[in-house]
Specification:
This protein is 2% helix and 40% strand. It is mostly beta strands.
């Protein structure tokens, strides 16, 4: 499965909104360094969320169902308080632009291994982010064979994993948007993945929250992307849409302050049907 190149066409020159709702950080939070700030917020779904469809288990169904899992579509996960999980919040750089400075707090993470597990006939976690050259371990906890077929616009790997097997690899080309990991043996198994050079990416948690720490001060553009939406241009702040057509907007990061967007709201009727 290859992603269409239309997703990666050059950005048009469009107006953006510069947001700046900063609060002071705890003194010394950034180890005494100047010139770095944080970016946080929460994404909430308004309205009735579409009922998840049952998945078709066309291989090893008895084994998989015996693990106690309920096999329904997990592409839209909304918490008890309305938070939307697995939204990618990503720094957007123009083609050919100089990369941002990277705070030393990210140095250790570059060598930290990301684990993507085939467990109970699911991928865990369901959405991952890693940096160029950062190791990822593909793991199979199940007693049956799986494979991890990684397909992004810039990267492709197809790794077979026998029962209990692990394989380590790195992905060396940055992506513009997330791609997919599928098991070609068990076609319902799917996860999301993105590879970036810079560390300024977050994935919303089960409460819809995101946090990106230690961003260089200045004006930066970020995007919101979700699997069942694509670019989240219909996202609203205080009842008003504020994003460009590719889900982008510009924020001002101030030294030793946190930019908190608060609650951003998305209408459930704007999810794409499957």
């Amino acid at each position: 499965m290859k992603l269409s190149k239309m997703f990666l066409s050059s950005l048009s020159a469009i107006p953006v909104v510069i947001l700046s709702f900063n609060t002071a950080l705890d003194p010394g939070r950034l180890n005494g360094d100047d010139g770095w700030g944080d970016f946080t917020g929460r994404i909430i779904v308004d309205g009735t969320v579409p009922k998840p469809a049952d998945l078709v288990l066309d291989k090893d169904a008895d084994y998989c169902r015996a693990r106690g899992e309920t096999f329904t579509d997990r592409s839209i996960l909304v918490g008890e308080n309305g938070g939307l999980q697995h939204v990618y919040v990503m720094m957007l750089l123009k083609r050919g632009a100089d990369p941002p400075k990277v705070h030393p707090s990210y140095d250790e993470g570059l060598t930290k291994k990301i684990v993507l597990n085939n467990k109970k006939c699911r991928f865990e976690p369901q959405a991952v982010f890693l940096r160029v050259g950062q190791p990822i371990e593909l793991k199979n906890d199940d007693a049956i064979g799986h494979n991890c077929h990684i397909t992004t616009f810039a990267n492709e790997e197809n790794i077979n994993l026998g029962a209990g097997a692990t394989v380590d690899l790195t992905l060396d080309t940055p992506d513009r948007i997330p791609g997919v990991v599928k098991c070609d043996i068990h076609t319902w198994m799917e996860a999301l993945i993105i590879v970036r050079q810079e560390p300024y990416v977050a994935i919303t948690d089960s409460d819809g929250k995101f946090s990106i720490k230690n961003i260089p001060e200045g004006n930066w553009t970020f995007q919101f992307w979700h699997k069942r939406v694509g670019y989240m241009r219909e996202l609203k702040k205080d009842g008003e849409t504020f994003l460009g057509r590719r889900g982008e907007f510009e924020v001002t990061i101030k030294p030793n302050e946190a930019l908190d967007l608060g609650e951003l709201r998305f209408q459930s009727t704007d999810f794409k049907k499957r």
